[in-house]
Write a structure and sequence with these properties.
Shape of chain A: flat
Strand content of chain B: under 5%
Radius of gyration of chain A: 29 Å
Low-confidence stretches of chain B: 95-121
Radius of gyration of chain B: 19 Å
Strand order of the largest sheet of chain A: 1-8-7-2-5-3-4
Largest sheet of chain A: 7 strands, mixed
Strand order of the largest sheet of chain B: 1-2
Structural class of chain A: alpha/beta
Number of helices of chain A: 15
Strand content of chain A: 5-15%
Mean pLDDT of chain B: 74
Oligomer: heterodimer
Order of helices and strands of chain A: HHHHHHHHEEHEHEHHEEEHEHEH
Largest interface: A-B, 47 and 52 residues
Number of strands of chain B: 4
Number of strands of chain A: 9
Chain lengths: ~450, ~200
Amino acid sequence: ISFRCMGCSTEEMGLFLDFNPFDNLLCILLGISFTVWFTLLLVFIIVPAIFGVSFGIRQLYMKTLLKIFEWATHRIERGEPTSLEEEIKEIRRSGSNRDLDHASEFEMSDIFYFCRQGVESIMDDEVTKRFSAEELESWNLLTRSNYNFQHISLRLTVLWGLGVVIRYGFLLPLRVTLAFTGVGLLVVLTSIIGFLPNGRMKNFLSEQVHLMCYRICVRALTAIITYHDSENKPKNGGICVANHTSPIDVIILASDGCYAMVGQIHGGLMGVIQKSMVKACPHIWFERSEVKDRHLVAKRLSDHVEDKTKLPILIFPEGTCINNTSVMMFKKGSFEIGSTVYPVAIKYDPRFGDAFWNSSQFGMVNYLLRMMSSWAIVCSVWYLPPMTREEGEDAVQFANRVKAAIARQGGLVDLLWDGGLKRGKVKDTFKEEQQKLYSKMLVGTQEDRSRS
Amino acid sequence: MGSTNSTLSKIPNVEELMQETGFTPAHIVRLYDRFEALDKEKTGHLRPQDFGAINRLAMNPIGDRIIGAFFSPGQETVDFHSFVRILAHFRPADKKRPKDPSMPEPVNSRTSKLKYPPLVFSLISVAFQLYDQDKDGKISRAELLQVLRSMLEMQVTEEQLESIADRTIQEADLDKDDAISFEEFRKSLEKVNIDHKMSIRFLR
């Protein structure tokens, strides 16, 4: 019996011995890869964020992406002429045996082109509405932005699949890690700073901490932001007013300057963040009940604005998110306070993904996940020259003036400015464009003929 | 799929509609959503103004005529069924489906003849109707000029328009009655691969 036991135990021990080094090896490998991972993260992302420098990695990334999108677009567009002239020639080519150069004159079949355009727009114009013509023609390898996705070629589908793997397998975890780091640091550091006595040191540290954490968050979204006209950046005692497309707007602006935020206190994680932020520097948070009281809101805002040591207030007058092609009615509350207004225009580049948050469609977490799993968020920020309310101008007119300035700068359509009148003008010019293109095609050749 | 089924159940006679037009349930749902989006007053019918609200259509030089194609003479509104039937003309001809003799021929067959009031159309007759606004079965010189004027407006002179119209009639008008009949129209389009060029990609 003892022999057998010995036999058993040696066998077991033998098995044990076999597993042990393997186990160890696995642990070591995992340990090494984690360390490497975190070091890379630290060196390339977090440290530059702290100091506000950039390696230019994101710019390079953006250029590479654009090249890939161009290639993908070519694959879709091959054999699909898109300009008016080419389309009509295609229609004729399929019917006529005659030499095309002499036959570029009106054909009865030309009407098919316009007819098809018309019916297509009856069927669906939602897709085309948000983007300009050139942007539609490029596909950014996200199925969510290509409603007409069909299997076009194997290579394209493979590329798309690869894109999915990269985005969800590599980029998303990376970004989520960064996001947690950024938010965590924000909460912890601002709470610590809250213990310091009020004074210049505290303000300085709080600014640095805010900037650093927002920069980390910017990298967590791979946001590639271009700031224009930084000499117009908002100063203390002013109100910064910007158009609103998504919650990310806050991060984008706050990573380039320090602002006092305005908003309602939420519960949960958001609430924790808000409470700790306000320890380090004065933000304006309202309780739910206070939000309805317009006088209270106005009073608090103007008190804040009068104190020149406090940071400029950041307000999004529109209230809800717009789809970044238009600037809707600005609510006049913030314009009644009577301080200098610094307008800021934010425009997202739709080629890389749609940053618009339709709050009725997605919740916040869903939205953030979508943002973090797209390629990048590319946007431009323009700091416009400060404006003040003029004599004889009431709050509404002032608000509209600011809105128009923002819309003009961002290339956004300023709705409700002229009411229906402006829209009417827009339609006619486009119709004329079509007519011009078509007639150039026809009449141009007529002139050639008469010359020869 | 759940939402597809629930939307489908809202539409009366949807089976018949699908059979007649050859649209899949997914297409019907999509068209229904679009119909509802256009029908802002929620009346269940579309009026010409509802089409007019589509910006891209308003930009189209022959936009009004296209809208007109949806409304039978004397009708002021179009319901979902008619909407779908007319759009069915723009479906690419389904070459793969085996011809089932018991099934009624789907609407976009190119052999179906022109019938007034326009409920059964082929692509060619849709186009013909765009030219022939008074519906007398012929495209007169005046009607042709009108179309040319819409497509070219102020970019060419009246004389140029007239010379284009003259030449076109000369080429297509075989029986020399100074107008283009449906047969003559069809003949002039004989070699054009209309199906490929007119059918809407995303209706496939």
